[in-house]
Prior knowledge:
- There is one protein chain.
- By secondary structure, the protein is mainly beta.
- Among the domains are: 53-116, no CATH class; 118-155, no CATH class.
- It is 2% helix and 17% strand.
- The two termini are 34 Å apart.
Amino acid sequence: MSINLKKGGCVNLSKENPDPKKIQIGLGWDTNQSDRGTEFDLDGLKGEKMKNYISEEAKVSKEAILEKPVYIKGRTTIRENSFVDSFTLINEDSTIHANTIIGKYCSIGKKVEVGVPKHPLSRLSTSVISFHLENRFPDYNSAFKQVEFEIYEDTKIENDV
Length: 161
């Protein structure tokens, strides 16, 4: 069954009509002219009016991709090869590490790290001395055998998380 509504029209989806199995809604792009609520304009969702909201304190890598609009608060860091999809909020003091994908409509809390580096678990120690020494203790490079190890794996957060 199909129902077409004109502006101001209504359809009953209450207890009196309990059997709808599937509902599909299509919207036009005209400004709401109804006197029953606040005016809104769906034209803003087309893209040309959208923008990102990024705190002046935030650090976003040039190799990161932010789909408009996203909201980045406070001293948040977004590292290289990261992708943040539209309508996502990342709260202050968070870090989005390399190779991370965050879907649409997500809310990331304060002081959260996503895509944190991993450590080799097959070694006697998980300390950085066995795989990342040159960046932490450069004077001791020859003292410890270094292991080839990819510290960043791909991390993906799906939509609406």
